[in-house]
UniProtKB/TrEMBL annotation, chain A:
Domain of life, source organism: Eukaryota
Location(s), subcellular: Mitochondrion inner membrane
Record membrane topology: Multi-pass membrane protein
Keywords assigned by UniProt, alphabetized: Electron transport, Membrane, Mitochondrion, Mitochondrion inner membrane, NAD, Respiratory chain, Translocase, Transmembrane, Transmembrane helix, Transport, Ubiquinone
Protein name per its UniProtKB record: NADH-ubiquinone oxidoreductase chain 2
Family per similarity comment: Belongs to the complex I subunit 2 family.
NADH:quinone oxidoreductase/Mrp antiporter transmembrane domain mapped to chain residues: 87-281
Keyword hit for Transmembrane helix: yes
Residues spanning the membrane: 58-82, 88-109, 121-140, 146-170, 182-215, 235-258, 270-292, 312-331
Species assigned in the record: Magallana gigas (Pacific oyster)
EC number(s) given by UniProt: 7.1.1.2
A Pfam entry, by short name: Proton_antipo_M
GO BP: mitochondrial electron transport, NADH to ubiquinone
Molecular-function GO term, any one: NADH dehydrogenase (ubiquinone) activity
Length: 332, 450
């Protein structure tokens, strides 16, 4: 019954998010964002063994999202009432940045994620964010807000990997990874919605694989990743880690390369420097994670040693990360 | 392309063999592929046999391809004799074969974009080899150093070929000469930085001793034998592509190299760890390649490639010897390794031969390379001879010191060795490294046919 309710609320949230993409008015975008967030609350709170900590994490998430929504609504009303475009855009920019968890408004991300279940981490960290990013106005009429939004994205791209280094808990690590990728998504939105959709799809699938593997091992701390991660998923995890490291020809290198290419076409030097800096730090972080994940004191079952479903998932993950990069490059 | 297809088919066939036979089969395959790759060796210009849409090979590429195949085979041969490769040895076979596959493609591709992708991809198998079979916990920082230096240093190259793709529509390396008047230090730095780090050039050499110390013997053989040469090959292609001539940037790089050669030799004198000593000697020797390449003369180019190929055989030979010797005494300390040499006197002879080859004693081709490189550099500024003289003195000193430490006889404590016999199988890798040196000696003017 619990699982059914989770699925129902998740589907309703997804429907609201999809509807958001087709709204032409910023007011209705705000409505659908809030509806989607509200439906996520029961999903995030659902747990077979309810503990106070779950509600703490969900409460933090809800308060932040609520405050962000208030700022967005305030901006909409201000623009409607007295046509103060600057203040309106500033409030909306603040509200959306807070909801997305961009630097320096990212303080809630790790605090919430640590108390979420893995499904919640995926939905909040990847699923929900891609819809919001796709619907955020770029504040082109108020250059100051546009620059602020842009630099917050750049800051997220660069700060995220640095914070990942200091993560002790796996969920905290995923939180900062989410911050990094949010920065990339927002930067991509400056170049066009098509890149947002492509990057979002790739990011969501990769995160789904990663989160599922971590959930199956009930991984809690980074230092225990090697022993907690199931042996039959280790090959897939290695592929994901190499992909997120930015090694060619894996998938994540190709997506970042496309954004780099677009920023070069637009002569956006700051974006190029940020992408390269983020990639370098990311590389070091994920090499460290790779080593932790592959070190184990106990001899474990190896490749293709799980059930059929587990092996299929593992192989799919390997194929996705190894070959989709080439496919994406050819298609794009 | 035929070589790649042959490699893929052979690997597919080897999969069906008994696990015990796979090692021998793979080593034999590398021998066959090396022989096949000799087909690409032709006269000046592009090899007709190699021409295709994706690949294009000339004498520089083909020499590197043959070197890759030979060295990777040696790596498997020497690793099969070692007892320190824990886990499934077949994983090592797969990683080395994959690495060789990537290297061969890297030396064959005709676009800068693909060269970059393959250049970075070679890090993955090597990092895996060091991570899985590396000696100590410090292997993680060594991998991070290596990855950060290599990937970070080649980011400017990424920007350059991306610019080519965006503005020119292609990063085709052959028969295109992009001459612009706005080329300056930033551009040349971006072109060559990643490749100089790979070589490694002073002062970007810090990653190499760490990587060598942590890598298993087979990993060190591949790293010293062929992976460093990627940098030299890449520099050749970049110079060809952008019609590089002698510029102030090149003179600065040559100055650093001269200092680097003296620095490397000095650091060798101070080392007690055999692998670090060989790593620093690699830094010294690669400095001569850099001098030759950046001198922009045919003589310099010939000298550089003789050094690249010769070093590709000598340095792995030193690592093979250090691997055998350190397995006997379970230590990489030079003073402790003398116990192993005393237990197996034949090792003393082989150490002498390899040390002399490393030093550049005739008839080793290294002396030809050093002479040609010195000629190029002195032609620019004669007083550089003073620093080069210091290098020759220091290199003689550390070589002599190394040999003396390995073969000293006065010992108070009873020696402890784990085995006191070195068989033909153990030394087979070394024999296969001697033979190509003779070939290089007799064909040293191969790279002069431009």
């Amino acid at each position: 019954m619990q699982m059914l309710s989770m699925i129902v609320f998740l589907v309703m949230s997804l429907m609201a998010s999809i509807a958001m993409l087709f709204m032409s008015s910023i007011f209705w975008v705000w409505v659908m964002t809030d509806v989607g967030t509200l439906f996520l609350i029961p999903f995030l709170s659902a747990e077979t063994r309810p503990k106070k900590s779950w509600f703490t994490g969900v409460a933090t998430y809800f308060v932040i999202q609520f405050f962000g929504s208030v700022m967005i609504l305030g901006g909409i009303i201000l623009d409607w009432a007295i046509e103060a475009a600057d203040w309106s855009s500033a409030m909306m920019c603040f509200g959306f940045a807070l909801k997305l968890g961009m630097v320096p408004l990212h303080f809630w991300v790790s605090r919430s994620f640590v108390y979420f279940h893995y499904g919640g981490i995926f939905i909040v960290g990847a699923g929900q964010k891609v819809f919001v990013v796709a619907c955020v106005p770029l504040f082109s009429d108020v250059p100051l807000c546009a620059y602020a939004y842009y630099f917050m994205a750049v800051g997220s791209m660069v700060y995220g990997p640095i914070a990942m280094f200091n993560a002790i808990a796996v969920k905290s690590f995923l939180a900062y990874s989410s911050v990094t990728h949010t920065g990339f998504l927002v930067i991509g939105s400056f170049f066009g919605l098509h890149i947002v959709y492509a990057y979002s799809f790739i990011y969501c699938v990769s995160m789904a694989f990663l989160v599922f593997m971590l959930w199956s091992g009930d991984c809690k701390f980074m230092k225990n990743l090697g022993s907690e991660l199931p042996g039959y998923y280790k090959t897939g995890f290695v592929c994901i880690a190499m992909s997120f490291s930015g090694f060619p020809p894996f998938l994540d290198f190709c997506t970042k390369f496309v954004i780099l290419q677009l920023s070069m076409e637009q002569d956006s030097t700051i974006t190029m420097v940020a992408i390269l800096t983020s990639s370098l730090i990311n590389l070091i972080v994920w090499v460290w994670v790779l080593f932790i994940a592959t070190s184990s004191e106990v001899k474990e079952p190896g490749f293709l040693s799980g059930t059929t479903g587990q092996n299929v998932l593992n192989m799919s993950c390997i194929i996705w990360n190894l070959f989709m990069g080439a496919g994406f490059s050819m298609l794009y | 392309m035929g070589l790649l297809i042959l490699m893929a088919l052979n690997c597919f066939c080897v999969m069906f063999l008994n696990k015990k036979d796979q090692t021998v089969a793979v080593v034999n395959c590398f021998g066959v592929w090396s022989a096949f790759s000799l087909m690409y060796w032709g006269g000046s210009g592009v090899s007709r046999e190699s021409l295709s849409e994706l690949f294009c090979v000339d004498i520089y590429s083909s020499s590197m391809i043959s070197l890759s195949l030979w060295i990777c085979g040696i790596s498997i041969l020497v690793s099969s004799c070692m007892t320190n490769l824990r886990g499934v040895f077949n994983s090592y076979l797969i990683l080395v074969t994959l690495l060789c596959f990537l290297l061969v493609q890297c030396f064959m591709v005709n676009t800068l974009a693909m060269f970059y992708v393959l250049f970075e991809s070679t890090l993955i198998p090597l990092a895996s080899i060091i991570g899985i079979w590396g000696g100590q916990i410090e292997r993680v920082p060594s991998i991070q150093y290596m990855a950060a230096y290599t990937v970070g240093g080649s980011f400017p190259l990424l920007l350059i070929f991306t610019t080519m793709e965006v503005h020119a529509g292609s990063s085709f390396m052959w028969f295109i000469s992009m001459k612009t008047t706005s080329l300056n230090w930033l551009f040349w730095g971006g072109c060559f930085l990643g490749l100089l780090i790979k070589l490694p050039a002073f002062p970007f050499h810090a990653w190499l001793p760490k990587a060598h110390v942590q890598a298993p013997v087979g990993g060190s053989v591949i790293l010293a034998g062929i992976l460093l040469k990627l940098g030299g090959y890449g520099i050749t292609r970049m110079m060809m592509l952008f019609s590089y001539t002698l510029e102030s940037f090149g003179i600065l790089v040559m100055s650093f190299s001269i200092v680097g050669s003296v620095y490397g030799a000095f650091m060798c004198l101070r080392q007690s760890d055999i692998k670090k000593l060989i790593a620093y000697s690699s830094v010294s020797h690669m400095a001569f390649s850099i001098m030759g390449l950046f001198s922009c003369t045919e003589v310099g180019m010939v000298g550089a490639y003789i050094m690249l190929v010769s070093h590709g055989f000598i340095s792995p030979g030193l690592f093979v010897l250090s691997g055998i010797n350190s397995e006997m005494v379970h230590s990489r300390k030079i003073k402790v390794m003398s116990d192993g040499v005393r237990a197996a006197p034949s090792l003393g002879f082989f150490w002498l031969v390899m040390i002399m080859a490393n030093l550049g004693v005739p008839p080793c081709p290294v002396i030809i390379s050093e002479v040609l490189s010195v000629v190029c550099v002195i032609a620019l500024y004669p007083w550089v001879f003073v620093l080069l003289l210091m290098y020759f003195i220091l290199s003689g000193a550390y070589s002599f010191s190394l040999y003396c430490q390995l073969t000293r006889t006065k010992k108070k404590i009873k020696m402890k060795v784990f085995f006191n016999e070195v068989t033909l199988k153990d030394m087979s890798a070394l024999y296969f490294l001697f033979y190509p040196l003779a070939e290089v000696l007799f064909k040293w003017d191969l790279w002069a046919m431009m």
